[in-house]
Amino acid sequence: MKQTDLLQVASEFGSPIYVYDSEKMISQYKRLTDAFKKVKHLRLHYAVKALSNVSVLRLFNSLGSGLDTVSIQEVKLGLKAGVSPENIIFTPNGVSFTELEEAVQLGVQINIDNLMILEQFGHQYPKVPVCIRINPHVMAGGNTNISVGHIDSKFGISIHQLPHVLRIVENTKMTINGVHMHTGSDILDIEVFLHAAEILFETAKSFKNLEFLDFGSGFKVPYHENDIETDVEQLGQKLSKRFNQFCKDYGKDLTLAFEPGKFLVSEAGLFLAKVNVVKQTTSTVFAQIDSGFNHLIRPMLYGSKHEIINISHPRKQKRFYSVVGYICETDTFANNKRISEISEGDILAFKNAGAYCYSMASNYNSRFRPAEVLWHNNEAKLIRKHENFDDLLRNQVEVAI
Ligand SMILES: Cc1ncc(COP(=O)(O)O)c(C=O)c1O
């Protein structure tokens, strides 16, 4: 997308606003499938939590992708987007049994990460094949919030509990059709993936009716020019070879599954916000935008760094800024960043705003959540309207006091 197109989007639909480039999502999808082209049956399940707009889900469905979901609401969004239930995997953690029952009724693939739930499920639905999520006890991921496969993590069934899993399977006569793991996000080192994969292969040997092995996700994407990223091509070469060997030994061509979120949508998204005021203090120059961590929480939550470009004046002299929001708490997007000179009214574009940005947005400070636009076939398509005052009041019940 050209900067002029982005300015046009901001002027036509208003700011702040999220813009997603479908071409980038498509090319990332193709890049990952190409990397694993030596595997006979490959399946990508796009992780809905990253960006759950129904039009985006529809786009991935049109590419042949399935969906990875973590709540029954995500399942329903996927079905609404036209994805067939067998292409949706449901991997909840800590949900009530009724949510699993609902998922059974909807016909999606269920992934269980708790021994007690597995036992209950096996008793109640012995004929419904399930996948199990293991905890491989591998420390991986960009920071502690997104490292989920280690020994202290709440996710997955410990690999040391495998004998107990097998006992439940035997006693209930249930079928385990898949084994899954997800160790974390922002994993750079492919050796970490390969090490965890060996644990998954070892676990998988214990199950005789498998159809797929799901290696989760965690690919690190670049956040600025020349930034390092997971070498998915090299991972594809190495893991495909090992997977094909495993299938040979297992005696069946299984499906290799991944569930990428960030890899597919992070770089496709830009967040556009307008500069309300420029404020000089004794220590810095603040550029304050018409947004805050209510719309983009990742810098405050994870310390993630989104590159910021002044698309209204990209070629002015660069100056140092602290880019902050309008929230009543510290909401710093960037500190001491060199950005082309900013004036009030300029539009700033935040990069890598496709994944975990809109989907984590809130109404904090009673602000409206922004609109979303899909840039598709060289056209801006509004895929979510800006909220308005009625949206804030929608579920409030006013009582006489
Ligand atoms: C179970 C599971 N699968 C897939 C993902 C997607 O990870 P990423 O966005 O790093 O690709 C996550 C992220 O939290 C996850 O928890």
UniProtKB/TrEMBL annotation:
<comment type="function">
    <text>Specifically catalyzes the decarboxylation of meso-diaminopimelate (meso-DAP) to L-lysine.</text>
</comment>
<dbReference type="InterPro" id="IPR022643">
    <property type="entry name" value="De-COase2_C"/>
</dbReference>
<feature type="binding site">
    <location>
        <position position="329"/>
    </location>
    <ligand>
        <name>substrate</name>
    </ligand>
</feature>
<dbReference type="GO" id="GO:0030170">
    <property type="term" value="F:pyridoxal phosphate binding"/>
</dbReference>
<dbReference type="Pfam" id="PF00278">
    <property type="entry name" value="Orn_DAP_Arg_deC"/>
</dbReference>
<keyword id="KW-0663">Pyridoxal phosphate</keyword>
<keyword id="KW-0028">Amino-acid biosynthesis</keyword>
<feature type="domain" description="Orn/DAP/Arg decarboxylase 2 C-terminal">
    <location>
        <begin position="18"/>
        <end position="354"/>
    </location>
</feature>
<feature type="modified residue" description="N6-(pyridoxal phosphate)lysine">
    <location>
        <position position="49"/>
    </location>
</feature>
<feature type="binding site">
    <location>
        <position position="298"/>
    </location>
    <ligand>
        <name>substrate</name>
    </ligand>
</feature>
<feature type="binding site">
    <location>
        <position position="356"/>
    </location>
    <ligand>
        <name>pyridoxal 5'-phosphate</name>
    </ligand>
</feature>
<dbReference type="GO" id="GO:0009089">
    <property type="term" value="P:lysine biosynthetic process via diaminopimelate"/>
</dbReference>
<comment type="subunit">
    <text>Homodimer.</text>
</comment>
<feature type="binding site">
    <location>
        <position position="356"/>
    </location>
    <ligand>
        <name>substrate</name>
    </ligand>
</feature>
<keyword id="KW-0457">Lysine biosynthesis</keyword>
<dbReference type="GO" id="GO:0008836">
    <property type="term" value="F:diaminopimelate decarboxylase activity"/>
</dbReference>
<dbReference type="Pfam" id="PF02784">
    <property type="entry name" value="Orn_Arg_deC_N"/>
</dbReference>
<protein>
    <recommendedName>
        <fullName>Diaminopimelate decarboxylase</fullName>
        <ecNumber>4.1.1.20</ecNumber>
    </recommendedName>
</protein>
<comment type="pathway">
    <text>Amino-acid biosynthesis; L-lysine biosynthesis via DAP pathway; L-lysine from DL-2,6-diaminopimelate: step 1/1.</text>
</comment>
<feature type="binding site">
    <location>
        <position position="218"/>
    </location>
    <ligand>
        <name>pyridoxal 5'-phosphate</name>
    </ligand>
</feature>
<keyword id="KW-0456">Lyase</keyword>
<keyword id="KW-0210">Decarboxylase</keyword>
<dbReference type="InterPro" id="IPR029066">
    <property type="entry name" value="PLP-binding_barrel"/>
</dbReference>
<comment type="similarity">
    <text>Belongs to the Orn/Lys/Arg decarboxylase class-II family. LysA subfamily.</text>
</comment>
<dbReference type="InterPro" id="IPR022644">
    <property type="entry name" value="De-COase2_N"/>
</dbReference>
<feature type="binding site">
    <location>
        <position position="302"/>
    </location>
    <ligand>
        <name>substrate</name>
    </ligand>
</feature>
<feature type="domain" description="Orn/DAP/Arg decarboxylase 2 N-terminal">
    <location>
        <begin position="26"/>
        <end position="266"/>
    </location>
</feature>
<dbReference type="InterPro" id="IPR000183">
    <property type="entry name" value="Orn/DAP/Arg_de-COase"/>
</dbReference>
<feature type="active site" description="Proton donor">
    <location>
        <position position="328"/>
    </location>
</feature>
<dbReference type="InterPro" id="IPR009006">
    <property type="entry name" value="Ala_racemase/Decarboxylase_C"/>
</dbReference>
<dbReference type="InterPro" id="IPR002986">
    <property type="entry name" value="DAP_deCOOHase_LysA"/>
</dbReference>
